[in-house]
Amino acid sequence: MGGIYLALLISVISMCFSVFLFIRVKRSSVGTEKMVKISNIISLGASAYLRRQYKTVSVFFGVVFLVLLLLSFCGVVSNFVPYIFLLGGIFSAIPGYLGMKMATIANVRTAAAAEKSLSRGLKVAFSAGASVGFIVVGVGLFGICGLFLFLNYWYTNVNIIETSKIAQNITSEILTFGMGVSCMALFARVGGGIFTKAADVGADLVGKVEVGIPEDDPRNPAVIADNVGDNVGDVAGMGADLFESYIGGIISSSALAIGAGYGFPGVILPMVLAGVGIIVSIIGALVVRVKEKATQKELLASLTKGTYLSSGLMLISSRFIIKNILPGNMGLFWAVISGLLAGLIIGLSTEYFTSSSYQPVKSLSRLSQTGAGTFVIGGLSVGMISTVIPVVTVSMAVLISFLSSGGNIATVDGFQRGLYGIAIAAVGMLSTLGVTLATDAYGPIADNAGGIAEMSGMPPEVRVNTDLLDSLGNTTAATGKGYAVGSAALTTLALVATYLYRAKDVAGAGASFDLTLINPAVLIGLFVGAMIPYLFGSYTMDAVGKSAMSVVNEVRRQFKNIPGLMEGTAEPDYSACVDICASSSLRLMLPPAAIGVGVPIITGIWLGVPGVLGLMVGATVSGFVLAIMMANAGGAWDNAKKYIESGAFGGKGSDAHKAAVVGDTVGDPFKDTSGPSINILIKLIAMVSIVFVGVAVSLHFV
């Protein structure tokens, strides 16, 4: 048990390091009184939205809690399950809210630092992003370790059960913690994504395209809503998203350890790996240094240096961890290596297809000269071809981790060991999430800093610096999404195995299921699963479109009806657009969330265990490819627009720029709403399937 106490201690160190970074950022200069006033308005809007979101989500959690409570009374699930589900939702909300507060404190300080130099702006923004990253991993690991220790104490000293069943009970109940985390993450990502992209699209279509004013011009009524959206969607939503990926990887591998025959040491191993990953991530974050007047390419190199150093240290550390916790199973070391390398390769691939430093985005920018149509077509092409490397990479990681861990499809034990290796690869990929998330979270902070610089009338060179940071942030954010989606594929494959293991356990000794492809239930499940990410994507894209239409109409109304608004002699009604985005996002986020929770339960009742298994596999394969395509296409469109704004092909105000703005409005919900939400969806489907496995076993019609 010493390993889990070590992991718990490291989780506390991570949270303390986050507080240290927070204090360092808060001591930075806040700039002028006008800058502070704008920042406070953004902060109040973001806090008000999250409070409304949590109130709405609490109704959903209350309903699911009652359902789980009823199932616990019927003996279908453990008595702890309903409460652990609620705990997962609460723990998911904490880092999202704290991340939003950190971002709204840092945005004005980043703007003030960017007035001095590009590198100083990056230093403040990265420190804030790192604070978000380490609170996410710290709270996540603390929650898992604390819950494990409580349940272990309960079954050892209070409600004493056979020693051989303690680990099995604990890991199956902790999976419900993952379900609560996934539900909260889906609401945060979808609701925040609808808010931020509705405001962004509405502001751009009227401001840039119709009336020809700059981005974040204070005359635009949607500009405050746009900046609020950066915090509730791209920081709070993203934090909850990657928190869910982190939790999912750890608990899925812990659950599989029992079936693989590794017992408590196998359960504890992923927690220790995650803990050591935090330590090496702290080292990686501390070595990120940038010189004055650095170019964008040098800034990107300085950020990736921290990621590479952390990964290298993790490789060295994991060998000693595995040797001490599971001696004689050093094949798991290669599983960790495969996960780490897969994450790095996906990150490099994402960088290549979304950064303006490389040919795909430059070629895409050139297409804007012939109009929005060709620009949109080119972006879709970039997104589609960008799926090849991640798919091949994850496939190789699965194969290497399965075989190196002693995987063998000919025997049950060998198969379980291989699946445990796949889950450990997912832990390896996400082990350095602290520093990876730091490079992701700083982007929205830099974007907000640019808005504050524009609205407060800071010198033009400040906006140039913040735009460079924002463009770099688009690339690193896309990389973070690649990590999340790649780990989602590995984690969900492990959860599929966990589902089958739990189904056999619930059905009793000697139970077997027909899982061949000639079984109609499996085939139907595959087709339904492959369709679900597209249905989900349709709902979320439509939600952004409807919300954006309301914002566009409101912005047009204000420009038409408020005298002197265009001339800058009157102030717009910012609160109207904020309220439209908040109310519409909270209303429209419910149907997509219902898909993730309802479909696996209905499929279980309809088709039983084989159908649910097909559903999980179909959704994983389809969702993985679709999420990568949408995230990378959106990142490419956005950075192509910024490349044009830097002076290429006529620069701001040119026909090429107007075409790029139209393309970017398509890409916004791609990369910040639908795409990143799909990776949560596929894990939520798996988590719900496992929690409600008793229903599929006992109530199915087919």
What are the SSEs and their pairings?
Elements: H1 2-26, H2 33-73, H3 81-116, H4 118-158, H5 163-210, H6 223-259, H7 263-286, H8 296-325, H9 331-354, H10 359-367, H11 372-385, H12 388-404, H13 412-430, H14 433-455, H15 460-507, H16 520-561, H17 574-588, H18 590-645, H19 655-691, H20 693-699
Helix pairs in contact: 1-4, 1-7, 2-3, 2-6, 2-17, 3-4, 3-5, 3-6, 3-14, 3-15, 4-5, 4-6, 4-7, 4-14, 5-6, 5-16, 5-17, 5-18, 5-19, 6-7, 6-13, 6-14, 6-15, 6-17, 6-19, 7-8, 7-13, 7-14, 8-9, 9-12, 9-13, 9-15, 10-11, 10-18, 11-18, 11-19, 12-13, 13-15, 14-15, 15-18, ...
Entry summary:
With 702 residues, this protein is mainly α. Helices cover 84% and strands 0% of the residues.
Describe it.
- The structure is a single chain.
- This protein is mainly alpha-helical and 702 residues long.
- 84% of the residues lie in helices and 0% in strands.
- Helix 2 runs parallel beside helix 6 (223-259), helix 7 (263-286) packs parallel to helix 13 (412-430) and helix 15 (460-507) packs antiparallel against helix 18.
- It is globular.
- 64% of the residues are buried.
- The mean pLDDT is 87.
List keywords for this structure.
702 residues; mainly alpha
Strand percent estimate:
under 5%
Distance between the termini: 44 Å
Sketch the topology as an H/E string, one letter per element: HHHHHHHHHHHHHHHHHHHH
Largest sheet: none
Going by helix content, strand content and strand pairing, the class is: mainly alpha
Count the DSSP helices.
20
**Uncertain runs:** none
Q: What gyration radius follows from the Cα positions, in whole Å?
A: 24 Å
Shape: globular
* Average residue-wise pLDDT: 87
Question: Into which percent range does the helicity of residues fall?
Answer: over 70%
- Would you count the extended β strands for me? 0
